[in-house]
UniProtKB/TrEMBL annotation:
Residues annotated as signal peptide: none
Keyword Transmembrane helix: yes
Molecular function, one GO term: magnesium ion transmembrane transporter activity
Residues spanning the membrane: 20-37, 58-78, 84-110, 117-137, 157-177, 184-205, 225-242, 249-273, 285-302
Task performed by this protein: Acts as a Mg(2+) transporter. Can also transport other divalent cations such as Fe(2+), Sr(2+), Ba(2+), Mn(2+) and Co(2+) but to a much less extent than Mg(2+).
Lineage: superkingdom: Eukaryota
Quaternary structure (record): Homodimer.
Family the UniProt entry places it in: Belongs to the NIPA (TC 2.A.7) family.
Localisation: Cell membrane; Early endosome; Membrane
Protein name: Probable magnesium transporter
Species annotation: Deinandra increscens subsp. villosa
Keywords: Cell membrane, Endosome, Ion transport, Magnesium, Membrane, Transmembrane, Transmembrane helix, Transport
Length: 352
């Protein structure tokens, strides 16, 4: 009896959602692995030639680097295909798993230290991803690319598109010339806003190709080519400003902020255009948002602490504990002098 009621309450994932999930996970696996393969290729090429960081291009002659590039392309193709089968609220957040795969493989293959906060960040990403997968909305049934175009031209999404274009115009014309070199949000804002439109265009094009390969030719519709044009325009703009952000600011700053903004705006765009939440109750929506926030927390933790070593982490924690104790003592009218910031050897400590 309990088993039947549970099945009635939870209908399970649709076939399309499962296909999209498998493609998204495959994409994260390929993309996460590609970073490690390319880095191995860059190191190998740097031994016999000028390193890429010094302006050299010897890596172009290194087969291992090209294996990494091909692996990344395969991952991006899988990610593209995933949007044709599953809603963006399921596919986009799972991109964080590539960070986990990259961190774990770097620990195993490149011998880069994965400290306790890194492990915690990975665990948070996994928990958040599982939460979203279990509660993601079903992909709506679409029979032609014309249906996607109708969704894209409804007043709500047209208004969203206009607001995005106005915001991008203001950022590019007014803010970037003045604050572009000092405020990371200028470049990231353009990348994320345009990126949300590019994912919707990718989804439209992906659905058209999926229907074409299944026997219903969508290439005869002008909407297919319109989505293709928007994909190219948005991706070129997105990559241009992302490269500027990476060239100007630290990657450890750019990556988590870009992931948070891009994913948030993509989910918002998908909810407006495809009405992902229309068939869900508030509990499912809140659970999905909690899963998303959990992934964001794990991603932030991984990036924020990835360059720290265990000794540094212990010193930071010890320093903060010392400050807290000092603050508590001052409130009590007491003071403790000489609290050490580093651990002292017992041989150097004098008995009181």
């Amino acid at each position: 009896m309990t088993s039947h009621s549970w099945r009635d309450a939870y209908s399970g994932m649709s076939t399309d959602n499962i296909k999209g999930l498998v493609l998204a996970l495959s994409s994260s696996l390929f993309i996460g692995s590609s970073f490690i393969i390319k880095k191995k290729g860059l190191k190998k090429a740097g031994v016999s030639g000028i390193r890429a960081g010094s302006g050299g291009y010897s890596y172009l002659y290194e087969p291992l680097w090209w294996v990494g590039m091909i692996t990344m392309v395969v991952g991006e193709v899988a990610n593209f295909a995933a949007y044709a089968f599953a809603p963006a609220i399921l596919v986009t957040p799972l991109g964080a798993l590539s960070i986990i795969i990259s961190a774990v493989l770097a620990h195993i293959i490149l011998r880069e230290k994965l400290h306790i906060f890194g492990v915690l960040g990975c665990a948070l990403c996994v928990v958040g991803s599982i939460t979203i997968v279990l509660h993601a909305p079903q992909e709506r049934a679409i029979e032609s690319v014309a249906e996607v175009w109708d969704l894209a031209t409804e007043p709500a999404f047209v208004l969203y598109g206009i607001l995005v274009l106005v915001a991008v115009f203001i950022l590019v014309v007014h803010y970037i010339p003045i604050y572009g070199q000092t405020h990371v949000m200028c470049y990231i804002g353009v990348c994320s806003l345009v990126g949300s439109l590019s994912v919707m265009s990718v989804k439209g094009l992906g659905i058209a190709l999926k229907l074409t390969f299944s026997g219903t030719n969508q290439l005869v519709y002008p909407q297919t080519w319109a989505f293709t044009f928007f994909v190219l325009l948005c991706v070129i703009t997105q990559m241009n400003y992302l490269n500027k952000a990476l060239d100007t600011f630290n990657t450890a700053v750019v990556s988590p902020i870009y992931y948070v903004m891009f994913t948030s705006l993509t989910i918002l765009a998908s909810v407006i255009m495809f009405k992902d939440w229309d068939g869900q109750d508030p509990t499912q929506i809140i659970t999905e948002l909690c899963g998303f926030v959990t992934i964001l927390s794990g991603t932030f933790l991984l990036h924020k602490t990835k360059d720290m070593v265990d000794g540094m982490l212990l010193n930071v924690l010890y320093l903060r504990s010392a400050r807290l104790l000092k603050h508590m003592d001052e409130e009590d009218g007491m003071s403790h002098e000489g609290i050490p910031l580093r651990r002292q050897d017992s041989s150097n400590m004098r008995p009181s």
